[in-house]
């Protein structure tokens, strides 16, 4: 499904691209892209808010802004920005990117990330909270994270790193985001607050993106947090007044109270004015399950005979699309024991998809990467424990510990060949796309895809008897696989 999206990328017109590059620098182009993204979502938001009363709005008639955006941008913005701008069709993909930022903070001491619903005190509307106790951001870092025109210097190890991913993913989820960050640096402790608010920017008619920010610093003599002297006092006051007017908090005391549960280091992100879905409800559903965040709408129809329908619907391959808890449970291949993801007050139990497989085999694949160092990828393949009842199949492909493709269906099995065959692998030799929901469609990926296809068929042809299918071909005799047995490729 994401493959199509990527193919469209090639449709950039070279002429336009050159003309635009003449007039705008890279930074302002990125700025434009995000502004554009904001604008379309804002239009949808207000359309639904103003006309979204039952009976007036025609359900399903509003184009989803991200689809629309993908089309428009592929015609006018150079390709190198395309993937950034079309980031995050899927709301959970945007949330995952914010969780990545917290996971990157494990190296700075983070032991948890909290994902929860909170309320906007101004109107009691639901807002999304994401909070970690990592290193936090000092005044420069929060500017890099929230402002435009900074280039992101990503360290190689980091998955997210408060880069542009932060802007695109927060803006995918809601119109406004406020960030509180507390950082303990060399002898100074700072608290910084920043507001990226589309509501503010449009209602005040700003023609460039202004991100109000204030910083406080611990006075080691008095022990109080005081206005940071880094920036002019006048600036501080005008920034603060914008924050109080447009953030959910209308007094400085209320604003600073948000630091109470952050402690001496960490970051709290609150996304408010969350987007609405076509049915006129907030897209993120906090109500159906008080211990989960769900997305309605997109529930996939499971094709199965009635007796098997429920086991299919309940399977993680299906649930991950609409239950954040299910998705987060498999988002990382491994997670340090010292770190927990807490979703709506409950730990997210980590799930190793390999343990969902029976009759496992381990297959080594050595991609020809062209480099002198030979990559080696170990794929665990097997039948889902619930096979043949569960029809899901495909490969869960991780990249540097992070799930990129869940249940990637490399074969289509109109004739059952491949049904219930699932694999798990970590493919670090291919590059994920910007939204980390797909891989760049390179020849390396194509080779991987065909190898996985062969693997699926080979596995099926040898072992389908084990789940009650008739082995069709005459095959050379082979020992039935046993758990933990290593077979050669
Ligand atoms: C907010 O503060 C920044 C410095 O941090 C300053 O450049 C900007 O002009 C201020 N905004 C206003 C409206 O004063
Ligand atoms: C500003 C920005 O993040 N640009 C990135 C967009 O995506 C391309 C790759 O698809 C990167 O190379 C750019 O740095």
UniProtKB/TrEMBL annotation:
Any one GO MF annotation of this record: ATP hydrolysis activity
Keyword terms, alphabetized: ATP-binding, Chromatin regulator, Coiled coil, DNA damage, DNA repair, Endonuclease, Hydrolase, Kinase, Membrane, Nuclease, Nucleotide-binding, Nucleus, RNA-binding, RNA-mediated gene silencing, Transferase, Transmembrane, Transmembrane helix
Record InterPro entries: HATPase_C_sf, MORC_ATPase, Morc_S5
Domain Morc S5: 322-460
Spans through the membrane: 21-40
UniProt keyword tRNA-binding, yes or no: no
Membership in a protein family: Belongs to the MORC ATPase protein family.
Protein name according to UniProt: HISTIDINE KINASE DNA GYRASE B AND HSP90-LIKE ATPASE FAMILY PROTEIN
Gene source species: Salix purpurea (Purple osier willow)
Source taxonomy: Eukaryota, Viridiplantae, Streptophyta, Embryophyta, Tracheophyta
């Amino acid at each position: 499904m994401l493959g199509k999206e990527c193919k469209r990328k090639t449709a950039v017109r070279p002429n336009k691209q050159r003309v635009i590059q003449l007039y705008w620098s890279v930074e302002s182009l990125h700025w434009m892209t995000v502004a554009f993204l904001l604008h379309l979502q804002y239009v949808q938001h207000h359309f639904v808010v103003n006309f979204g009363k039952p009976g007036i709005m025609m359900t399903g008639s509003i184009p989803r802004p991200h689809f629309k955006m993908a089309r428009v941008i592929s015609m006018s913005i150079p390709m190198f920005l395309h993937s950034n701008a079309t980031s995050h069709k899927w709301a959970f993909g945007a949330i995952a990117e914010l969780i990545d930022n917290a996971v990157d903070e494990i190296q700075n001491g983070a032991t948890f990330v909290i994902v929860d619903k909170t309320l906007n005190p101004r109107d009691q509307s639901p807002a999304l909270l994401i909070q970690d106790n990592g290193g936090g951001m000092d005044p420069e870092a929060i500017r890099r994270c929230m402002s435009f025109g900074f280039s992101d210097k990503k360290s190689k190890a980091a998955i997210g790193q408060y880069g542009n991913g932060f802007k695109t993913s927060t803006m995918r989820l809601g119109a406004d985001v406020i960030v509180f960050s507390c950082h303990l640096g060399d002898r100074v402790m700072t608290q910084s607050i920043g507001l990226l608010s589309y509501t503010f920017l449009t209602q005040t008619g700003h023609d460039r993106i202004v991100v109000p920010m204030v910083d406080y610093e611990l006075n080691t003599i008095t022990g109080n947090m005081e206005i940071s002297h880094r920036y002019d006092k006048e600036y501080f006051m005008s920034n603060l007044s914008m924050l109080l007017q447009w953030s959910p908090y209308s007094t400085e005391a209320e604003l600073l109270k948000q630091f109470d549960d952050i402690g001496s280091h960490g970051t709290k992100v609150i996304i408010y004015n969350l987007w609405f879905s076509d049915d006129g409800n907030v897209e993120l559903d906090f109500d159906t399950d008080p211990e989960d965040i769900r997305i309605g709408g997109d529930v996939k129809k499971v094709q199965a005979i009635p007796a098997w329908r429920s086991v299919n619907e309940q399977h993680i391959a299906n649930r991950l699309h609409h239950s954040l808890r299910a998705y987060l449970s498999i988002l990382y291949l491994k997670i340090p024991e010292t770190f927990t993801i807490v979703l709506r007050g409950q730990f997210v139990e980590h799930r190793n998809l390999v343990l969902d497989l029976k009759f496992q085999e381990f297959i080594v694949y050595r991609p020809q990467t062209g480099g002198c160092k030979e990559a080696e990828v170990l794929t665990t393949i097997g039948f889902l424990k619930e096979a043949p009842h569960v029809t899901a199949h495909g490969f869960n492909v991780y990249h540097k510990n992070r799930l990129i493709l869940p249940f990637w269906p490399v074969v289509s099995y109109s004739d059952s060949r491949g049904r219930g065959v699932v694999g798990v692998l970590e493919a670090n030799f291919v590059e994920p796309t910007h939204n980390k929901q797909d891989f760049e469609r390179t020849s390396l990926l194509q080779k991987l895809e065909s190898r996985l296809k062969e693997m699926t068929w080979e596995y099926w042809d040898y072992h389908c008897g084990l789940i009650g299918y008739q082995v069709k071909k005459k095959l050379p005799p082979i020992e039935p696989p046993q758990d933990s047995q290593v077979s050669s490729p």
